[in-house]
Amino acid sequence: MDVLMRELFATDIGLLTLFTIGFIVVMAAWLFFFVRKNVARDEAAHASEERKLRT
User: Fold this and answer.
1) 52 assigned to some structural domain
2) Which stretches within 1-55 are classed as H helix?
3) What is the extent of the structural domain holding 44?
């Protein structure tokens, strides 16, 4: 286990791997919140439009 951690944190390829994993996690979180925000906004606009059509 010590060899794996040393390779992960001390070599160029290990640091690149950590950077890539971190980047993917951050991108996935941003995409999740972006889609959630836009879906909520679209649902609110749709509900507002639907109320206008009923009256």
Assistant:
1) yes
2) 2-10, 12-54
3) 25-55
Helix 2-10 and helix 12-54, axial crossing angle in degrees, nearest 10: 70
| Phi, psi dihedral angles at 11 (to 5 degrees) | -105, 160
Q: Is residue 14 part of a domain?
A: no
- pLDDT per residue over 1-55, tens digit each? 899 999 999 999 999 999 999 999 999 999 999 999 999 999 999 999 888 888 7
User: Which pair of structure tokens corresponds to residue 2?
Assistant: 């010590």
Please give the tally of structural domains in the chain: 1
What is the pTM (predicted TM-score) of this model? 0.76
Does 18 reside within a domain? no
Q: How far is CA 3 from the centre of its chain?
A: 31
Q: Read off the tokens for 11.
A: 């070599």
